[in-house]
Amino acid sequence: MTQLLEQALKAAQNLPQAMQDDLARMMLMFSKVEQFPILLSQEEDEAIARAENSAEKGLFATEEAIAAVWSKPRKSPEA
C-alpha cells in the first residue's frame, strides 16, 4: 500500500460513518471489485421525480432560460 493511500485511510477514520461508507463505495468502484447502486437522498429522489414529471408533460427549459443560467458567473469550488 502506498504512503498516500495509508494517509488517506487514516484521515477517513475521522469522518462520519456515512462519509466513510461513501468513500469505501468509491474505492470499490474504482478498483472494479464491486459495484454498488448510487444511493440518492430524499431531496435528490424528489427532484428527479419532478424532472421526469415535467418531461412527460413536455415541459422543457427554453434556449433563452438555458443561456441565462450559463451566462451567470460561477463560483469556484473553493469559494
Your description of this structure?
With 79 residues, the protein is mainly alpha-helical. The protein has 2 domains: 37 residues, no CATH class; 30 residues, no CATH class. The protein is built from 4 helices and no strands. The longest helix has 15 residues. It is elongated and about 50 Å long. The two termini are 34 Å apart. The mean pLDDT is 87.
Brief overview:
This protein is an all-alpha fold and 79 residues long.
Order of helices and strands: HHHH
Global shape? elongated
- Tell me the structural class: mainly alpha
Rg, Cα atoms, Å: 19 Å
Say how many strands there are: 0
Mean pLDDT over all positions: 87
List segments where confidence is low: pLDDT < 50 over at least 5 consecutive residues: none
Number of helical stretches of at least 4 residues: 4
State the end-to-end distance: 34 Å
**What is the share of helical residues?**
55-70%
Describe the largest sheet: none
Oligomer: single chain
- Content of β-strand: under 5%
The number of domains: 2
Key structural traits:
79 residues, mainly alpha, 2 domains
List strands and helices in order, with pairings:
Elements: H1 3-12, H2 17-30, H3 42-56, H4 63-71
